[in-house]
Automatic annotation (TrEMBL):
SUPFAM superfamilies: alpha/beta-Hydrolases. Residues 23-257 form the AB hydrolase-1 domain. It comes from the Bacteria. Keywords: Hydrolase. Pfam families: Abhydrolase_1. Gene3D superfamilies: alpha/beta hydrolase. GO terms for molecular function: hydrolase activity. This is Alpha/beta hydrolase. InterPro entries: AB_hydrolase_1 (IPR000073), AB_hydrolase_fold (IPR029058), AB_hydrolase_sf (IPR050266). It comes from Saxibacter everestensis.
Length: 272
């Protein structure tokens, strides 16, 4: 989906798009993804909601300047500001992967108000990251300078590990395309190098103070962030609901689209 609008923020150009009319829903993506993972869900939900899609700077269709920070702290400040730009006082928010940490930080540290929050296979509890993240952090410039074919092979292997059922060639192409240009290759390794557990450590003790409705949805077969984290997270947030979806990994949007769409429709409709 082409994101048709732009929000200029601290020298960055943030691509975004709105679909439908109705109560607002904001969908937040993670890494190394973009709003592409949410596009079919946004189209389906647009029959009942105004759905806002956006790409974080450094990702997807947004700007990818090497000089711009892409850490989770910066992205959370951006989320607060783009909600104000959209004039959304208390939207329902749906977040995946890094989007979880971004939306939680925006709410807990920067005063972003939500009507509800759905956390889907999110980065929220330590430890997270991987040996690959640490290797990239120590050698980001070397990885960025790899020959294109080697970068593509490593990228595809990395992304493939997020799906339990396996990705079609079309799905793989959609997920890798933003990272295959010279600009995209550098941006891919910069956002991994910026990963730092301190961004969740700073808020983890605050989860007990969350007083909005929260739904935790997780793929039971997620190998990137195992499902026991879903249970821990739901226990830390007062009143949080937990739903585990069978035969789904970290890329639950592709592994179990019908089950996820049904869970989100029920949750968001109840929150109107």
């Amino acid at each position: 989906m082409e994101l048709s609008s732009r929000f200029e923020w601290r020298g960055r150009s943030v691509a975004w798009h709105r679909l439908g009319l109705g109560p607002p829903v904001v969908m937040c993506h993670g890494t190394p993804w973009s709003s592409t993972v949410w596009s079919p869900f946004a189209e389906a939900l647009s029959a009942d909601f105004s759905v806002y899609l956006w790409d974080m700077p450094g990702y997807g269709q947004s700007s990818k300047q090497p000089s711009h920070d892409v850490d989770l702290g910066t992205q959370a400040e951006l989320l607060r500001d783009i909600l104000q730009y959209w004039e959304l006082e208390s939207p329902q928010v749906v977040a995946h992967d890094y989007g979880g940490a971004v939306s939680l930080r925006a709410h807990l540290l920067h005063g972003a108000s939500y009507a509800s929050l759905a956390l889907v296979d999110v980065v929220a509890l330590h430890p997270w990251g991987s040996d690959f993240f640490r290797l990239v952090a120590e050698n980001a410039e070397v990885f960025a300078a790899q020959p294109t074919a080697i970068h593509r092979g490593a990228l595809e292997a990395y992304i493939a590990g997020a799906s339990h059922r396996g990705l079609s060639p079309e799905q793989m192409n959609a997920l890798t395309e933003p990272w295959l240009s010279a600009e995209g290759q550098g941006a891919f390794y910069r956002q991994i190098a910026a990963a730092d557990e301190r961004y969740t450590d700073e808020i983890q003790d605050l989860y007990a103070a969350i007083d909005i409705p929260v739904k935790v949805i997780w793929g039971r077969n997620d190998t990137w962030i195992p499902a026991d984290r879903a249970t821990q997270l739901a226990q830390l947030i007062p009143g949080a609901e937990l739903e585990l979806i069978d035969n789904a990994g970290h890329l639950i949007q592709y592994d179990a689209p019908v089950q996820l769409a049904t869970a989100l429709q029920r949750w968001l409709t109840a929150g109107q």
